[in-house]
Amino acid sequence: MTSLRCWRALLPALAAALLLVPQTAVAQDPTDPAAPPRAATPDRPSYDVTLRSDDDGSRWTGRQTVSFRNADRTPLRSVDIRLWGNGTDGCGAPDKPSPIRVGSVAGGIPRPLTVDCTALRIDLPEPLRYGARTSISFDVSITVPDRVHRFGKDGAHRYLGNALPLLSVRDAQGKHLDPDVGLGESFHTLAGDFRVVLDHPRALRVPATGTTTRRAGAPGRTVSTSVARGARDFAWAAGPFRSRTVTTPGGVRLNAYWTAATSPEGVAVDLKDAVGSVDEFGKRFGRYPYGELDLVMSDNLDDFGSMEFPGLVLLWTEPEGSAVVHEIAHQWFYGIVGNDQFASPWLDESFAQYATELYYREDTSTCWDDHGEWPSDTAAVTRSMAYFADGHRSEYGQVVYRRGSCALHDLERLLGGTEMAGMLRGYVRDHWLGVATTADFKRAAQSAAPHDLGPFWTEHRIH
């Protein structure tokens, strides 16, 4: 999500969040014949979506088809669709329904919504055998909430992050039906392909994940078609944005969009840092795979800071710039190298912060001592979002962003700069468009170390 630079601005919101009653993960039913598969499934998803907006981009309706394969030896009898856009509003009220609604399901039998209306189980008509593919389709209705948020409104601008229904993951741990705890991210998806057709008024500019082509639609309307390969999510925005396109020396197309109130100085700083970081991270971790990257900037996103999606980042931009480098680093750590963000938030946030500090050449030689004592005896870099949501919200930034990134800098000092860089390139290569765990990273680091790293993991509370 946001970098340390923007973290201070989030403290009032976090203080308010302490008043919320934390949610807990949904227990798995051991009698469910569909759980727990061993391999991550359903995999190789393909999303084909057609949506039409109203006059100002506040409401989108249409049809979505999802095809997928069963990667596990156990026959797949149902799938779960996550409606993450309902995370804040839950099941709504009779006069104000949930912002994401699904209906007219074909290819399966829908069950009642669960996990505060963020999870929809669809039973398949017959068990899907190992290696076989099938598809389901459904109508989608998206109403953008009236709040400044990654899924919300900003004046005449609309942000549709976490709005598109996505397949949930099942693996050796069972079904991943974790809740949205209102802090950080709870997402866990497998990389797939997207083809999203957005029919919208011509006056609206619509940045989106993937490579986008546009053609004239009905009178006064434009049809934007975005295609993304190997992406974990799809996000878009709509509004009267100003825009500019540049191409980095490394060949990545950057499409910048910003609101009229956003400072020109901030836009210039963001573009400069985006050009430098996307190329540097490409050299350091592996070439950026999505061809183009959309930067969506506003001076009014301070309620949640900034947010990453594959091929698109939302940026709270002030005259001195934004967390653009941190969010671009997430294209590698979360986008390319996936992780279960509920179970292991450090695998994307700590790594993105570490990469950001490398880019800015920050002095981190004393960072471990500079952070002082651990906030509690139970705090650890590898804690899950369940831990932070359950009475430890104030620890999240200090532990995941600060101590997590500092642990990586300490590891670099232990291994050596060249060895650390080579190890990370191999780690990214080995988990390219896959999902990594803490155990995977510890194995990669140990393979580059001349001695046992056990004491290092213990000291840095990486369990």
TrEMBL record:
Residues 28-62 are annotated as: Disordered. It holds the Pfam family Peptidase_M1. Keywords: Signal. It comes from the Bacteria. Residues 28-44 have a biased composition (Low complexity). Residues 1-27 form the signal peptide. This is M1 family metallopeptidase. The lineage of its organism: Bacteria, Bacillati, Actinomycetota, Actinomycetes, Kitasatosporales.
